[in-house]
Amino acid sequence: MELAQVRLLVTDFAACYRFYADILGLKPQSGAVDGPYEKFSPAAGSAGIAIQDREMMAGILGELGDEANGHRSLVALRVDDLDAYCAQITARGATLIHGPAPLTDRMRVAHLKDPEGNLVELQEWLLLRGS
Predict the structure, then answer these.
(1) Is residue 59 within 8 Å of 46, Cβ to Cβ?
(2) CA 90 to CA 21: how far, in whole Å?
(3) In sequence order, what are the residues at sequence separation of 6 or more whose Cβ sits closer than 8 angstroms to the Cβ of residue 10?
(4) 28 - beta bridge partners?
(5) What residues does 46 pair with on adjacent strands?
(6) Helices (H), strands (E): how many in the chain?
(7) Are 103 and 111 in contact (CB under 8 A)?
(8) Cα separation of 126 and 108, whole Å?
(9) Among 89, 121, 119, residue whose Cα is nearest residue 104
(10) Would you call 66 helix, strand, or coil by DSSP?
(11) 3-state SS assignment for residue 19
């Protein structure tokens, strides 16, 4: 078994597309700006994040509400230099809600939300830096 992706169901597809592509800098697989589906990949690693139109999935399953309530997901992305990456993404329009700050003695993190309110955690693994 292999994890193919984490998929987020979204109501404002275009805003989420811009967030993951333009602000976080992940590479879109197909360029489907208008949806209903797109997968994004970081420069390294094989894991990916996908977004899918919530209404489309509701039609398939017949059970999803129009809007998710509360924090239902957290996407974690590892970066080499948390401070530098946070400076880059805030310059592109991101708003950090926490950090950069230590989470443990082995990791520093920062948090932000995508346009749908999904939490994104940026992680800097200190052991990989020799810190």
Answers:
(1) no
(2) 14
(3) 16, 51, 52, 53, 54, 114, 115, 116
(4) 40
(5) none
(6) 4, 8
(7) no
(8) 7
(9) 121
(10) coil
(11) helix
- Of 45, 47, 99, 49, which is closest to residue 74 (Cα–Cα)? 49
Structure tokens at 7: 């998929």
Q: What are phi and psi of 37, to 5 degrees?
A: -150, 145
Tokens 């129009």: give the residue: 66
- The whole-number pLDDT of residue 71 equals 62
Report the pLDDT value the prediction gives residue 60, as an integer from 0 to 100: 74
Residues 6+ apart with CB under 8 A from 16: 8, 10, 51, 114, 115, 116
Show the DSSP H helices in the chain as ranges: 13-18, 54-61, 82-91, 126-129
Token pair for 12: 């404002």
**67-123 per-position pLDDT tens digit:** 666 666 778 899 999 999 999 999 999 999 999 999 888 989 999 999 988 889 999
Phi/psi for 47 (5° steps) reads: -75, 155
Residue 130 neighbours by CB distance under 10 Å: 5
pTM of the prediction? 0.77
Q: How confident is the model at residue 24 (pLDDT cuts 50, 70, 90)?
A: very high
